[in-house]
Structure formats: structure tokens, C-alpha cells
């Protein structure tokens, strides 16, 4: 959307990926003096500290003196240095605390995926013994295929020769001529 995005990261692989995608990767100490909106995506603590907040711009929006409740999920804090910070969702998960819900189509995709995952886990104990598993892309594709017509999407179908050339399996839930890309 044209925003300048700074990324702070502790993992070298994630930092490299972010840099390769064109994002500026820096430290939180350097980012706080430049940013206007701060979003944390970790379950860890002290990602944004009081020292960080003291260095943020006036009316920066942060996931975590005096406080004024602007509206549900939005509070404006007066910091000791005279600056104000806007805190969303009391520093909690914004998507849960401030959400007003998803459209039914989005929920249908999500719930369909959950149901197919539960069926796979329940019926295929050999592939999915008790534990945590990454479910196959095939389930996501099945959910997508079931929903595409509702939004007017038409997929191109591979010919048998094209599917064979790509090495797609000839056995399984979809016949070779049903693969679409």
C-alpha cells in the first residue's frame, strides 16, 4: 500500500528473507524514532518497552501518566516526556481484541479447511499419528476449489500431457486431467 516498512528481527534467516523482499531490517531502538505505527507479531515479552515508547513520535500507534479512552480498543497515553502514544487493544492481539468479525465467505474458507483437517487427522492415523502435523497443500487446494466458483474464478485445466510433463501423480484424489493451475 506504499508504506515504508521497517522490520526488526532476531532470526538471521527471517532477517535475510525480509531484506531480500525489499524491507529495511533494523533494530527496535532505531525503528522507534522513525515509525508511526508499531505492530508486534510475537508472543514474547518486552518487544516494545517503556524506553522504546519514550522515543516514539507524537501520537505514534503502538501495541502497548494519564490515559484517555478514545473508543473501545483505542487508548491515548500521555508519556512523561509530554508525547502521546495511541495504544491498540491494550497491547493485546489486535486482530482478536479489536476485530468486528470476518465476512461469511472468509469464515467458510477457514471452517472448511478445519473440517477437512479434522477428517484427515481422524481417518488417516498412519500418516498422522498423535502429535502436531503440517497438513498437505492438497487440503488447501480442495477448499479453494470448492469456493472459487462463488467468486467467479475459472481455472485453466492442464491436458494429460501437460500434467505428465510436470510429473503430477496419476493416482490420487484428482485424475491427471483435473489438475488446474
Automatic annotation (TrEMBL):
E.C. code: 3.13.2.1
UniProt keywords, alphabetically: Hydrolase
Organism superkingdom: Eukaryota
Protein name: S-adenosyl-L-homocysteine hydrolase
Organism, as annotated: Coemansia linderi
